[in-house]
Structure formats: C-alpha cells, structure tokens
Amino acid sequence: MSKILYEVGVRAYGLGVRLAAPFVPKAAQWVKGRKGIFEEIHQKLQHNTAPVAWFHCASLGEFEQGRPLIEAFKQRFPDYKVVLTFFSPSGYEVRKNYAGADFIFYLPLDTADNAHQFLNLVKPALAVFVKYEFWHHYTRALRKRHIPLFSVAAIFRPNQIYFQKKGSFYRRILERFTHIYTQNTESAQLLASINFTKVSTAGDTRVDRVLQTAANAAPIPLAEAFKDMAPVMVIGSSWPEDLQVLLPFMQEQMPGLKFILAPHEIKDKELSEIEEQFKGKAIRFSQADVATVASYRILLIDNIGMLSSLYQYADYAYVGGAFGKGLHNTLEPAAFGPPIFFGPKYAKFQEAKDLVDAGVAFCVKSAPDLSKKFLAVHGNPAELQKINATTKAYLQKQAGATDRILTSLEYWLPSRQV
C-alpha cells in the first residue's frame, strides 16, 4: 500500500505543479526547467568519456550543505566530472551557473522510466544525495546497477516514517544506500534502532564552508563606511513575520544601534515600507554612497549573494525564518562569533539547538522578548567575549566533516588510483 501511495503521490505532485504553472512563477520554472530535460542531458554528456560523480540536492539549502564536499571532491579527484542536480527551482535557478560542477540539471521526477533513462545518460560511477533526499526509483535503479550511493549531512528524527511500524517501504529505500553520513549521533542511533548499520556520524559539512568563507571574507567598503565604529545588528534572511518582531525592536534600539537588513526576498514594496517607517534613516545599498552612508541607521540590502560576507560587520546577528517555515543559516553569522537571535521554530536544525544550548544563540518569541535578551548581552564586554570564544570553539570542534566523508568515499571510487 505504501508503494502505491508513493507512486500516486509523486505523480499527483507533478500534475499539481503543472496545473499551478500558469499562476505560480516557481511552478512555471519547475515545469519549464524539465521540458526536454533528457535531450539536454544527452546533448551535454554525449561526448563525455571521464568518470562521473553525481551529486543531488533538493534546493539551495541542501546545496550549501553539499558544496564543500563537491569542491573538495573536484580538487582531490580532478579526472572526474561532476553532475549536479536540483529538484527545486530555488536551488537550480540560483546555482545553474555554479563553476564547481561540470554539468547542472533539474532532476526528472522520480518514476521508474525517468530513473532508468537518467542513469543511462549520466552513467555515474557514484551518487551522493544531500540531507533529505530519499527517492524510491532512483535508489532502486542505482542499487540494481551496483552504483555506490551515499547520503551526506543526513538528519533523522524519531517521528519520521522510517521509524514507525508502517514504514517498511521507506526503510527499504534507506537500505539501498551504501553508507549514510549523519550530522549528529542521535540520527545514527535512530538508524541503529532499525538495524541500519552502514552509518557514520561525520558532522555538518557547512561548518567547513562557513569557516572558509569567514577566513577569506573580502571587505565591503560601503558596509564598513556605514558601520563607522558603531555597534551593528545584521539581520539576515528576514521574512514579514520576522519584521513584525524586528521593527518595534529597531525603533526602540535605534539611538544606539545600527542595522544592516537583508530580506529573504527582495521586494520593492516591503523595502519602501521600511523606508517610509524610518524616514530619513534607512537607505538601500544600491542607492547609498560611501561618503554619506554613515549618517543612516539602517542599510537595506537589495541584492543577492552578499549576506555571508556582511556578517563580518555584525556585533549582533538576527537570522530569519523561524517565525515561519523554518530557520535560515545560523552558521554563517556564527563563523564571526556574535550573539545570534532567531524565532521559535528551530527544533529541526541541529546547529541552532547546539548554539542555544551553548548559550551563544537566543530564541525570541516577541519584540519585548528580543529586547530583553538583547539587553542581557548588550554593553557587556565580558559576556560578548565569552560568546565569541564559545562559538568559535564549537565550530572548530565541528570542523572536518568534509574531509571525513571524502576520505571514506575514496574507498568506493571505481578508479581508486585516480
């Protein structure tokens, strides 16, 4: 029954996206990106004679999780070509020109025919799925062809179907993986509880990425001029739900605190509303000038791709998403060591839980709660120094997941002498 429901669910999803495409831009991208996908794959790979490593990410967040491994793989095994696939437009459209992969495609929907055709064209020597990707037909086809398959940066929770009585169909999917590398020991223990032993706790590959980014962060002259020695809170990936908490806080703290605000989605209407509310005090990055930007209290980021480097100017950081669908990347600000604040929906994010437990990140539920927790650390040099040191020690302890996974993967490469 579970298999039938899975088949129906996958096909219903594909149909639903197609029906939504005329009305929903993201759905339209999903459909357009898969139109003629097999012809595209054939055209681009038909003359390839090098061995292929296939990396698959659902979306942009999973890509950032897998990126350190992809880049390290390319460096260690330059004779391999990397095929990178995405399921979601929010990953593919942003990273379709990513230089770290040789070929980048949308992943065709998980059907038996699609999996067979995809593998015939790509001919991977190994496959690496990042975090949550557990597709029935692709894993089955890879297993039949004896192609090593790995899951990296995986996270499991007790309420997932793999650990329920009715989950036998989904447990068989897990059994097709050659090895699963989890982010934490709890996930490994859950897998052991269902007699899955091909598992290692490797850690979070994003830690390697953020440490590298922080070590090589290029200065941003406009942001540096804006800061002008004043304490700054960098607000990253904010949603409207976050702004309901943040805007009253900003009004309250503005006399002594500046803000760099990078919304998750850049919408002119929302930026205009902030400019109107803080008339004469807020300016967009694209309209600011190094000579005068220090006179403003809010710098609105109206571009994409700068956020991870902006955190170098953060005395405090707020990470958005945890009043809505889910928390965004807290490791990026953590790499620079400031206190981090975010909303209540963070339980699915191991690194956020770790940072809260370590006393360096703070869950807030309202504007007054944010003010209270901010004031508990603001203006306390000893506490801020302690937070900085504790955060950096945590990251150093977590570092090395990329190398641990890559060293293990090397054993399974068909051409280990490469």
Automatic annotation (TrEMBL):
Q: What pathway does this protein act in? A: Bacterial outer membrane biogenesis; LPS core biosynthesis
Write down the InterPro entries for this protein, in alphabetical order.
Answer: Glycos_transf_N, Glycos_transf_N_sf, Kdotransferase
Database matches in SUPFAM superfamilies:
UDP-Glycosyltransferase/glycogen phosphorylase
Q: What is its EC number?
A: 2.4.99.12
Pfam families per UniProt: Glycos_transf_N (PF04413)
The chemistry this enzyme catalyses reads: lipid IVA (E. coli) + CMP-3-deoxy-beta-D-manno-octulosonate = alpha-Kdo-(2->6)-lipid IVA (E. coli) + CMP + H(+)
Q: Where is the signal peptide?
A: none
Q: Which GO terms describe its molecular function?
A: Kdo transferase activity
Cellular component GO terms, alphabetically?
plasma membrane
- Annotated catalytic residues: E62
Q: Which Gene3D superfamilies does this entry report, sorted A to Z? A: 3-Deoxy-D-manno-octulosonic-acid transferase, N-terminal domain, Glycogen Phosphorylase B
Q: What class of enzyme is it?
A: transferase
- Which subcellular locations apply to this protein? Cell membrane
The protein's UniProt keywords, in alphabetical order, are: Cell membrane, Lipopolysaccharide biosynthesis, Membrane, Transferase
Q: Does the keyword Hydrolase apply?
A: no
**Quick one: where is this thing mainly located?**
membrane
Does the record bear Cell membrane in its keywords?
Answer: yes
Q: Which GO terms describe its biological process?
A: lipid A biosynthetic process; lipopolysaccharide core region biosynthetic process
What residues does the 3-deoxy-D-manno-octulosonic-acid transferase N-terminal domain cover? 43-208
The function of this protein is: Involved in lipopolysaccharide (LPS) biosynthesis. Catalyzes the transfer of 3-deoxy-D-manno-octulosonate (Kdo) residue(s) from CMP-Kdo to lipid IV(A), the tetraacyldisaccharide-1,4'-bisphosphate precursor of lipid A.
Family statement? Belongs to the glycosyltransferase group 1 family.
- Provide the protein name: 3-deoxy-D-manno-octulosonic acid transferase
Protein species of origin: Rufibacter latericius
The upper taxonomy is: Bacteria, Pseudomonadati, Bacteroidota, Cytophagia, Cytophagales
